[in-house]
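Late entry, written up from scratch paper. The run itself happened at the end of the previous shift, but nothing got recorded in the book at the time, so transcribing now.
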Amino acid sequence: MSGNRGRARMQGNVLRGLYRLARGDAGGIREFGNTTTAFSASIAPLLAFPIVGSALIGINGHWILAAVIFLSRICGVLIQPVITEWSARRTGQGATWLMTSTALNWSIWLIFPLILAGVVLSGGLVSVGLPQPAATAVTIGLIVLYMFWYQWFILRAGLRLSVWRALSLLIAMNVAIGVVYGLPYALHPGLLRLILTSPAG
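Output as recorded:
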């Protein structure tokens, strides 16, 4: 019973932290645990998806490609905490890097409510006369911009970075992740088609 209450409290703090940060309250960063346990709980689901996806591709008979994709995705997930920890040490904020990285891990899941909100927004734009492709493009653009702002705000709140340093760090982090994620597709031009036609797709 006490274990259930503990898990409920952890989940409540995560949700409250995400909500507070979403409305620009820097104090929301303190809702995320500054411990290895909290960090592990935040990164575990992000590591699980590459394992499942790669296994499905492997079952389809492409084990080497599955291994390459698996390593690419795992490295992509781990880039964020590595860069966050490095930056925290460089700026004298090493005591809060776990909390910051934990918040960044959880922030990825915000994409799902944003997509739901985007569907409503896109429908509203179409209803006032905007063509569907344009409405979709505007909606996607706003979601991307908001997620970028959200993670930038987490870096500022967690590591106490200046506006431009947080922006530079976030850009570098996303470029590094994009390169690692995109490398398998550069090495195997037909990989995207293979994924879309496999059970994992």
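The chain is about 80% helix and 0% strand.
(Scratch paper discarded after transcription.)
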